[in-house]
Amino acid sequence: MKGFGDFFKEARTSQASEKAKKLGLKGDGHGGWYDRSGEFIAKTEKGDLKFYTKGQRPGKDVPNPAKPKAEPAPQIKAKATTVTGKQVAAAPEAEAQKSKGSGEEEKTKRGSDALTLVFGRFNPPTTGHKKLLDTAKGISGDNDFRIYPSRSHDPKKNPLDPGTKIKFMKKMFADYEDEIVNEKDMKTIFDVLMTAQEEGYKEVTIVVGSDRLGEFKNLATKYNGDLYNFDSIAVVPGGTRDSDAEGVEGMSASKIRKAVKDDDRKAFERGIPSSIGDDEINNLWNELKRSMGLEVTTDKKDKKKVKESVEMWEIAPSFDYSGLREKYYNKEIFKRGDLVESLHTGLVGKVTRRGANHLICVTESGIMFKSWIKDVSEAYTEKKKESIERLPGKPNTLVGTGGYKKYAAKMTPGSSYGKEFINKYKAKK
Q1: Strands, E, within 224-309: which ranges?
Q2: Which of 149, 170, 176, 365 could serve as 88's disulfide partner, Cβ 3.0–4.6 Å?
Q3: Residue 253's pLDDT band (boundaries 50, 70, 90)?
Q4: What is the rounded distance in angstroms from the CA atom of residue 338 to the CA atom of residue 120?
Q5: Which CA distances in Å does 281 have to 18, 160, 170, 250, 293?
């Protein structure tokens, strides 16, 4: 018969296991925990999770010198996960299993123990972002510096898909081309920080716009010691942002999206770095028009019309806050139980409380975050993703969706897709 102490010990051990799983670690069945590359990083001792990342090198220092190092757990080919609610923790995966030649998974090597980073939407990139990156680079000094564009994509507030966005960023910010990280698993600020710990960084500095300082500082520091462990983690402003100011100080992606909707080419060009030529500026303009659903059509009299499928509050809430507030007050958007995504951190959570102008949300993994209604967007599920870029009467060709898979199969010579109807009406799970 188990005593009280036995139950207490088991409870503590279970807590240690849950913590390890949140960090994306894989157990060996004997209390040892390994990161996604198969290197030893922690051990369950007396019901607590003891890390071997400070003062010790993962994979080099073993938890118990009296015993031989445990064999790493077999590499499991599994899709990496996140703490957004869509995904919880990254599964171990060998580097050799990473996709190659896809334009993503651009790995960078650690050159110091301290990392300075910028995590942002850049949708689209602007002169304001250039100023932020210059400031962040100056703050980094001799430490490593990285730029993590978010993976958010929707036709309203995030019209450019990650690949297209990063392509323009590397042309606009050529000085930082090598620092721009294109990894599909870096969906949230937590994904970035957890990866930084795995890579061996001991200190992290996050540079953000002044209007996002409080949100990032609260979340990043709150979970230090839980989701990740750094000797120090700091959140600093990358300059003052004034939406009413003229020039670079007042430039934002919202202003650019507004200019595109208003068909104001001059205002658009004022916000785009001069480092790219006229052809690329025109390409960006047309790409935003297409992605935002603002298609130019011609009627019988050859008069050009712009088909507007979105409202101003949807693409640039700060310029139509009254429209946003009215929709919110009437409970047409962001209802309790809805999934929303933080535009700043990338976190996806379910709305649990509706305030006067803010939301309290909780991710699937239990992380709570607060956000103003202007700083969130509807979270796009896989089902919705299958239709966001589909034109009337056209097949879905959005890469990564079921529609794209079907389209590709249909276009492949020798494919039987479209000829077999036996499972046409099979119930989908």
Answers
A1: 232-237, 295-298, 304-307
A2: 365
A3: very high
A4: 24
A5: 49, 14, 14, 20, 19
Q: Phi and psi (nearest 5°) for 115?
A: -125, 130
Supply the mean pLDDT for the chain. 76
Taking each helix axis as running N to C, give the angle between helix 162-172 and helix 278-291, from 0 to 180 degrees, rounded to the nearest 10: 160
Q: Which tokens in the block code for residue 124?
A: 């689209």
Distance (Å, whole) CA 261 – CA 289: 8
Q: Around Cβ 285, how many Cβ atoms within 10 Å?
A: 19
Residue 98: pLDDT over 50? no
Residues 175/87, Cβ–Cβ less than 8 Å = no
| Phi, psi dihedrals of residue 94, rounded to the nearest 5° | -65, 150
Contact between residue 49 and residue 14 where contact means Cβ atoms under 8 Å apart: no
3-state secondary structure of 222: helix
Query: What pLDDT shows up at residue 96?
Result: 38
User: What DSSP character marks residue 419?
Assistant: T
Q: How many CB atoms lie within 10 A of CB 258?
A: 19
Could you tell me which residues come within 8 angstroms of residue 305 by beta carbon, excluding any fewer than 6 positions away?
296, 297, 298, 299
3-state class (DSSP) for residue 238: coil
Nearest to 91 by CA among 40, 20, 43, 170: 20
* 184 alpha carbon, distance to own chain's centre: 8
* Total Cβ atoms within 10 A of residue 401: 20
| pLDDT the model gives residue 284 | 96
Mean pLDDT of 394-404: 50
Q: DSSP labels for 177-227?
A: GGGB---TT--SHHHHHHHHHHTT--EEEEEE-GGGHHHHHHHHHHTBTTT
Phi/psi zone of residue 114: left (φ > 0), alpha (ψ -120 to 50 degrees), beta?
beta
What are the structure tokens assigned to 54, written together? 């400070």
Query: What pLDDT is stored for residue 117 in this prediction?
Result: 97
Tell me which residue has tokens 């659903």.
Answer: 293
Amino acid (one-letter) located at 231: D
